[in-house]
Amino acid sequence: MLGAGFIGLEAAEALAHRGLQVTVVELAEHVLPPLEPELASLVADELRRLGITVRTQVAATAIEEGPEHDTVVLADDGRIDADLIVLSVGVRPDTAVFEAAGVACEKSAIITDEHGRTNVPGIWAVGDATVSTDAITGLRRPITLAGPANRAGRLVADDILRPAIARPIPQPCGTAIVRAGGLTAALTGANRATLLAQGIAHHTVHLHPTQHASYFPGACPVHLVVHFREDDGLLLGAQAVGTDGVDKRIDVLATALRNRMTVADLIDLDLAYSPPYGNAKDPVTMAGLIGNNVLTGTVRIPARESVAAQAAHPGTAPGRHSRSSTLRRPCIPSG
Ligand SMILES: Cc1cc2nc3c(=O)[nH]c(=O)nc-3n(C[C@H](O)[C@H](O)[C@H](O)COP(=O)(O)OP(=O)(O)OC[C@H]3O[C@@H](n4cnc5c(N)ncnc54)[C@H](O)[C@@H]3O)c2cc1C
C-alpha cells in the first residue's frame, strides 16, 4: 500500500482482513499525516496488531516489473516484492478542460464564490475540484471530503433555482473520520503543524477520559487533543483516537468549532449522560475544564522539550508554560 492516508489505511485493513501480507509505505513522518503524531502512533500500533508492516518517512521511488512479482523500490534502497500494489497517494483535480473554457482556477482547482459560481456566467462548481477557504486558518485549498461536496451541491442547486433564498456554502472545518482495526481516528479543524506554520499562537491540551462511566463494563479511553487560541480560547482544532465514543466527541467539537465557541464554552454544553453512554463530566466537558484551567493560568503544562530536558537532568525546574504543550503521554491536570 503506497500512501497511509485515510483510504490507504482502509484498503490495507481490508486486504489484511482477507489474509494478505500487507506493507504500508508512507512518505510522511507517520501514518494518517493530518493526525497529530502522538495519536497517529496509536493507529500505527493497531495496524501492526493487525499484522500490517508499517514503513514511514520513506518514499517509493520506482516500481520494477518482474516475471513472478513486481518490486517497489524505496528511497532508502529498501525493496519490497509485491503481487499487488495499491497507489493511494492522493488526488489532484484535472481542470485543464475547464481552464481552456475560461473558468478561473488556482493551483489546478476551480475558484468559486460563496454560492459556487465560477467567473463564467452560467457555470457553477462544487466538490473536490474546487478551492475552499479553511474556516479556521483562512488557507485556500481543495477539501476532498464527501460531506462538504454533498452539502455544497444542494446549496448550488438552490442558487440556480431560487437565488433569492440560497444560503452561502459554508467554509469547511475538514471534519473527517476513519476506522483502523479496532480503533477510530477523527479530527476537525486545524492540526498543530498548520497552526505553527500559520503562526497562530495556541495552547494544546491532551486528555484520556473514558468514553462512558468508568465503572460501567466496557469503559475505554478516548485519547483527545484540543487546540485553542492563546489569547481568548477560541477553538481551533480537535482530534481523537479510541475504540469507542470518538465519533460522538469529534462531532460535538466540530459543531463547537463551526459556531466559533471557545474552550470554556465546552464546559457549558448540556450533553446527555447515563453510565452506558457518557460521563457526568463528558470528555468534551473535561476538555473545556482542562482548557480553561490552562487559559486562566490555573495550571501550567510543560512543553515536551522541557519534560525531555528534565528527564535528562532530573532536579532542574520545568520550563515556562509553552504555547503548544505537546506531550506524548502527558500527565493530565484534573478538570
Ligand atoms: C475510496 C474513497 C473513499 C472515500 N471515503 C470517504 C469518506 O469515508 N468520507 C468522506 O468524507 N469522503 C470520502 N471520500 C472522498 C469523497 O468521495 C469525495 O470527497 C467526494 O466524492 C467528492 O465529490 P465530487 O462530486 O467532487 O467528486 P466525485 O464524487 O469524484 O465525482 C466526480 C465525477 O466527475 C466525473 N468527471 C471527472 N472529470 C470529468 C470530466 N472532464 N467530464 C465529465 N465528468 C468528469 C468523475 O468520473 C466522477 O464521477 C472517499 C474517496 C475515495 C476515492
Automatic annotation (TrEMBL):
Coiled-coil boundaries: none
Domain Pyridine nucleotide-disulphide oxidoreductase dimerisation: start-end pairs: 184-278
SUPFAM superfamilies: FAD/NAD(P)-binding domain, FAD/NAD-linked reductases, dimerisation (C-terminal) domain
Transferase recorded as keyword: no
GO molecular function: oxidoreductase activity
Cofactor: FAD
Domain of life: Bacteria
One family name in Pfam for this protein: Pyr_redox_dim
Domain FAD/NAD(P)-binding: 2-134
Disordered: region residues: 307-335
Alphabetic keyword roster: FAD, Flavoprotein, Oxidoreductase, Redox-active center
Keyword NADP: no
InterPro entries: FAD-bd_OxRdtase, FAD/NAD-bd_sf, FAD/NAD-binding_dom, FAD/NAD-linked_Rdtase_dimer_sf, Pyr_nucl-diS_OxRdtase_dimer
Family stated for the protein in its record: Belongs to the class-III pyridine nucleotide-disulfide oxidoreductase family.
Protein name: Uncharacterized protein
Source organism of the structure: Brooklawnia propionicigenes
